[in-house]
Specification:
With about 625 residues, this protein is α+β, with helices and mostly antiparallel strands. About 20% of the residues lie in helices and about 35% in strands. The chain is built from eleven helices and 39 strands. The strands form nine sheets. Strands 11, 12, 13, 14, 15, 16 and 29 form a seven-stranded mixed sheet that branches. Helix 4 runs parallel beside helix 6 and helix 8 (about 330-350) runs parallel beside helix 10 (about 490-505). The longest helix has 21 residues, at about 55-75.
């Protein structure tokens, strides 16, 4: 496995354990510093035969050589020989010194004094001074930016590398980020079946997104459902972690398709399922994290193996902090849609939008209207802020289609001939996200008390006179996912939905229930005529003659009528189908309808009718939903 860091231009090859290595022994040199016999006296030649030749010069040379060697051996007796000791080899770099760890914005900057021969430094981190240190990156510099520090204790050590040689660990540097942890979304994941698969809480950002999604994609189905135990552990995880001081949202989102089957075996402190469920419900209601109460959502999708439907309903009710946060899906498409809706809500809970608008100072009593829907006449606007100018203040404010926490009077900031009004915590009417398109905002005014006609300020420049400021706060979120075998092929869709949930928390770019740009569609079915042989309609993904996923279906029986709207993913190249006597699957005979691309944020009515003895389907776009 290769390790990379944004601080380094070199890949670090197989260095998590940072094993120290020494070069191979050179030929002819032993570790005790003596010569190895063999190649130095070839063809039978030896010191004795050379001396017998009577060669005086050679005799003298041999004598001097032996004498010097003896001196060298004598001088080395009892001393180390560092050039030849593999533990102190000259190619091995020294450990870095002077390690420091300091706060750098929302990160930790680790610095050190370089090792003279080092070409690469590897940074290790632990939550404990004497704990296991993990490789978190490498660099060629003498500093490293830890962009995802632990929320509490951070211990750092460094090793210097030269080729395959490593130094010893440096001394550690310590930094506690408990009171200065970066603002952001802190996410944990628990997958449950017969046991728990846990990803500890950590900061979600672009560099960690893949870690979360890989964890979700790697979850596997098994028998068993330790539902209560999983949520209980999620609360434990939330309590143990440290968070930034700007924490505003703490949430648990639980998905299940079945009943609890093993929590009592994993926690023997409870005598019955009812007792354990009640205890978890009390923890949800009364535990707070840094003074923030837990918001708990539950999504239930009743599996075929649910024998006690009342207990299933009780589970999803009591695993939510209030009845408004429990949701029972009737099809897998609604599960996916609900995940996105919750993700969008959580994303927008952790941000606030302030809209600042600069205009020239007007005469007292002038009525002003700021429109947000690109109208050509302010009187036709349905989204606006309106009020009266009075000595640098905007008074008697009326909000239409938008909300702001600034109230009915906003005091402006005067600079020269201009005044700027700021509207805090801008949302839509339901308190959710509002997309502010600055380019279409217009200013209108009525100067005379006797006039009723809005005049457009043609000098108002949205690009220069409007500023949207987004203030981000921190959130702690645990995703608790059922991974039981009863999910069957739907398990793949649950994992895809969970990954989309992670993307939504990070990006916040779509909202499946805002009617514009969402990723879901609502569809309903209409049966025009009794047609007793055609009691059921639906939408499915079909490959050839195989049904991959039935997104939604509705059973009419022998009756005519129209169903409620159901939710499916938008853009699905879906097939409209109907059943003959409830067991024979048929496509719609109209091929243009058989694979219909449903647009995001729209509602559709699919009608089954008979024409000239042939049954056909018709799809009507009912428009954008809110």
């Amino acid at each position: 496995m290769s390790y990379y860091s944004t601080n380094s231009i070199y890949p670090l090859r197989s260095l998590p354990d940072a094993k120290e290595e020494t070069p191979a022994t050179e030929a002819g040199v032993l570790h005790d510093g003596t010569m190895e016999a063999g190649d130095h006296f070839k063809n039978g030649a030896n010191p004795k035969s050379l001396m017998s030749k009577g060669n005086l010069a050679l005799k003298f040379f041999v004598f001097i050589t032996v004498f010097i060697s003896a001196l060298a051996i004598s001088s080395c007796m009892g001393k180390e020989y560092p050039e030849l000791d593999p533990e102190l080899d000259s190619d091995k770099p020294a450990a870095p010194t002077g390690i420091t760890a300091t706060k750098d914005g929302n990160t930790v900057k680790v610095s050190w004094k370089g090792s003279p021969k080092a070409t690469l430094y590897v940074v290790y981190r632990s939550k404990e001074a004497n704990g296991a240190y993990d490789n978190i990156g490498s660099t060629t510099n003498t500093y490293f930016i830890d962009r995802n520090p632990f929320g509490s204790n951070n211990y750092y050590k460094i090793k210097a590398f030269l080729s395959d040689f490593s130094s010893e660990f440096s001394e550690y540097a310590y930094f506690n980020f408990a009171n200065g942890k970066p603002t952001g979304k802190y996410i944990g994941i628990i997958g449950f079946n017969e046991s728990l698969k846990v990803k500890d809480i950590s900061l979600l950002n672009e560099s960690t997104r893949l870690d979360f999604e890989s964890f979700i994609s790697g979850m596997n189905r098994k028998d068993g459902t330790v539902l209560y135990y999983a949520v209980d552990n999620a609360i434990d995880m939330l309590e143990k972690e440290a968070y930034p001081d700007d924490l505003v949202n703490v949430s648990i989102i639980t998905f299940t398709d079945g009943l609890d089957q093993g929590s009592l075996a994993l926690n023997s402190g409870y005598k019955s399922h009812a007792e354990y469920l009640n205890a978890v419900n009390n923890r949800i209601k009364y535990v707070s994290i840094k003074g923030v109460n837990i918001t708990a959502y539950s999504i239930g999708f009743e599996g075929n193996d649910v024998s006690d439907k009342n207990q299933f309903d009780q589970n999803i009710l009591q695993l939510a902090d209030n009845p408004d946060h429990k949701y029972k899906a009737t099809n897998i498409g609604e599960v996916l849609w609900k995940f996105e809706e919750i993700a969008a809500s959580l994303y927008h809970k952790s941000i606030s939008r302030t809209l600042s608008i600069k205009i020239p100072i007007l005469e007292n009593g002038t009525k002003i209207r700021f429109t947000f829907d690109n109208v050509t006449d302010a009187a036709n606007s349905t989204i606006y802020i309106e009020g009266t100018y009075s000595s640098g203040a905007f008074k008697n404010i009326v909000y239409k289609g938008v909300r702001s926490s600034s109230g009915t009077t906003v005091n402006g900031t005067v600079a020269g001939i201009f005044v700027t009004f700021s509207f805090n915590n801008m949302t839509n009417n339901s308190g959710g996200n509002i997309t502010i398109n600055e380019n279409i905002i217009k200013e209108w005014y009525i100067a005379s008390s006797t006039s009723t006609t809005w005049q457009k300020n043609s000098e108002f420049d949205p690009k220069n006179d409007i500023q949207t400021i987004i203030d981000r706060k921190s959130a702690a979120i645990i995703l608790v996912l059922d991974c039981s075998a009863s999910l069957g092929n739907d398990f793949r869709l649950i994992k895809e939905s969970a990954n989309a949930f992670i993307d939504m928390l990070l990006d916040g770019e779509t909202n499946g229930n805002n009617g514009s740009g969402g990723t879901y569609t609502q569809v309903r079915f209409k049966k025009d005529g009794p047609y007793q042989s055609y009691p059921k309609m639906g939408i499915a993904d079909v490959t050839g003659t195989d049904i991959d996923t039935i997104w939604v279906s509705h059973t009419f029986g022998d009756n005519s009528g129209i169903s409620p709207y159901y939710t499916i993913p938008a853009g699905v190249h879906a097939t409209v189908f109907y059943y003959w006597n409830l067991w024979t699957f048929h496509y719609s005979d109209d091929k243009s309808i058989s694979a219909y691309d449903f647009l995001p944020g729209h509602r559709y009515t699919v009608t089954l009718y008979q024409s000239n003895g042939v049954f056909r389907s018709q799809v009507v776009d009912d428009g954008i939903y809110n």
